[in-house]
């Protein structure tokens, strides 16, 4: 039991004891008679279900203008890097084949110079590829974070306006009890997203 529950239990016990002592000093009221329901009528439950909404983030990425724009930006940047990498790779392959075709005619010093130049170009190529991958991961992270923040804000506004106790990502739902009313609010949240 956590600390707050222990304190609350102790306070309730103290209150119950005080009320019991005071009750002994007061005249006893008449015992109330139980009220019975008419035959065949059961007690109506007045407890309202808790409203929880969920959003499908994959759907938002695929169907919202913001998601589509982010996917397009990533695709365009990826294609740009792929084409640049392909051009650099062809240059390296040409440089290597030229060196291989001339290697027997070169002096040991020339051979060493050409091999070092090729190795330098290979290292530069590898660094470029690693830099491109790093840039793509960074861009993807920034676009994802921006989209998630927009979805969180739109979901909060929609949830407050429509009496939801919570709006969560669809993937986070494992179980919902009987007193929970659940609704897919993806379409409503998409409508509330700011335009890119």
Put the structure in a nutshell.
One of its GO terms (biological process) is protein stabilization. By secondary structure, the chain is mainly α. Helix content is 66%, strand content 8%.
Characteristic terms for this protein:
196 residues, mainly alpha, Protein Binding, DinI Protein, Chain A, 5 helices, 3 strands, Molecular chaperone Skp, signal
Task: Characterise the protein shown here.
The protein has 196 residues and is mainly alpha-helical. It has a single domain (50-192), classed as 2-Layer Sandwich (Protein Binding, DinI Protein, Chain A). The chain is built from five helices and three strands; from the N terminus they run H-E-H-H-H-E-E-H. It has a three-stranded parallel beta sheet with strand order 2-1-3. Helix 4 (108-161) packs across helix 5.
What's the structural blueprint in terms of helices and strands?
Layout: H1 3-25, E1 50-55, H2 57-63, H3 65-102, H4 108-161, E2 166-169, E3 180-184, H5 186-192
Parallel strand pairs: 1-2, 1-3
Q: Write the element-wise H/E pattern from the N-terminal end onward.
A: HEHHHEEH
Average the pLDDT over all residues and give the rounded result: 80
Reported for the largest beta sheet, the result is:
3 strands, parallel
Report the helical percentage: 55-70%
DSSP helix count? Answer: 5
Output the structural class. mainly alpha
